């Protein structure tokens, strides 16, 4: 597998979709798929698929297509799924709780080590088996365990402060669900934000386009 | 404002980010901004900003930059924020509850009309003022009100069935949080999915790249 530092953000963002699609194909028993069929299932052209994958090496065979299991495995490698990354959750409100209970961390190659909160009602308890600790012990915990990613679901007012503490304590990445635009001054920390509003506004735009077309066909 | 049917998905996906960034600039009292400064705050080049906005018309003035409030307003128009779109939530588990309680629907131009569930414990109650109805009444409710979007947070096993009911009942869009890849056979319905795993795997990829660089600088 070749590594290419110049891979575009758009291609990087498609990699998890390939992985997801291939996982679903594997579950439904598909063994081999052409780039055309794989593309069609993802709303991409065959040539886009080939170009994307070519950024990372040679996959598939002309006229034969891709073997679903080995392509899934290789993309999983590229995504770092087998690296044993670890994660902690900061904030156990409804959203934090929903993610802890329902998100399949292990299917994405992450071990969820602990959750942190300030509320004495939850500190000391477990959510879906995950221990909830007081945030006072955050730095000690990160120093004692290898924590790669901190997931932020704290209130917006606490977002930057908790983000700074995670960065200072040495995490490699922050997965930000706070809707707050974190300032990340450290080039060695990766910041990935989930902005629900960006998604809803995209939907709003696409609906509005349809409305205009219906009014002026 | 011109409408251009050929605007690329990448540009469309950046529009909500512009809107969010301009909202934050407005809140901090910035009146006017150059394309260079706006780009820098978003990790884009000045020319990319100009190209993106040119898809929708003429904004800003050479050597003067953009007026923050009017650009925000125009992008809001493009996104359909002032169209009075409406939304219902299907599923009031932890995630549904978190979104109902915390997401600022009105700031994104949506009115949240009702939530639906099957659990007799929550049906008839209110979450953050939003009435929870039984899902048996879904079609009647959609017929009686103008419902533009259905937000899905039901269990994966129920996702396709509830998605089909929403489409058959005539919604224009589905905002899918179920992690299930919905099949949407209707070209008139817009499907927008929030896949947490795509976001975490992107983060995993970027962290893995950093790890490799640290090992082989």
Key features of this structure:
homodimer; 217 residues; alpha/beta; Arc Repressor Mutant, subunit A; Rossmann fold; seven-stranded mixed sheet; two-stranded antiparallel ribbon; 8 helices; 9 strands; 45% helix; 17% strand; globular
Task: Characterise the protein shown here.
- Chain A has 217 residues and is an alpha/beta fold.
- Chain A folds into two domains: 9-78, Orthogonal Bundle (Arc Repressor Mutant, subunit A); 84-197, NAD(P)-binding Rossmann-like Domain (Rossmann fold, 3-Layer(aba) Sandwich).
- In chain A, 45% of the residues lie in helices and 17% in strands.
- Chain A is built from eight helices and nine strands.
- The first copy, chain A, has helices spanning 9-27, 35-42, 46-54, 68-79, 94-102, 138-144, 156-169, 196-215; strands at residues 32-33, 66-67, 85-90, 110-117, 126-127, 130-134, 149-152, 173-176, 190-193.
- In chain A, the strands form two sheets. Chain A has a seven-stranded mixed sheet with strand order 5-6-4-3-7-8-9.
- In chain A, strand 3 (85-90), helix 5 (94-102) and strand 4 form a beta-alpha-beta unit.
- In chain A, helix 1 crosses helix 4.
- The radius of gyration of chain A is 20 Å and the shape is globular.
- Chain A starts with 8 loop residues before the first helix and ends with a helix.
What does this entry show, briefly?
By secondary structure, chain A is α/β, with parallel strands linked by helices. In chain A, 45% of the residues lie in helices and 17% in strands.
Corresponding CATH superfamily of the largest domain in chain A: NAD(P)-binding Rossmann-like Domain
Q: What topology, given as strand order, has the largest sheet of chain A?
A: 5-6-4-3-7-8-9
**Main sheet summary of chain A:** 7 strands, mixed
Low-confidence stretches of chain A: none
Number of strands of chain A: 9
CATH fold-type name of the largest domain in chain A? Rossmann fold
**CATH class call of the largest domain in chain A:** Alpha Beta
- The tally of domains of chain A stands at 2
Euclidean distance between termini CA atoms of chain A: 49 Å
Name the average pLDDT of chain A: 91
Q: Can you tell me the overall shape of chain A?
A: globular
- The quaternary organization reads as homodimer
Q: Structural class per helix/strand content of chain A?
A: alpha/beta
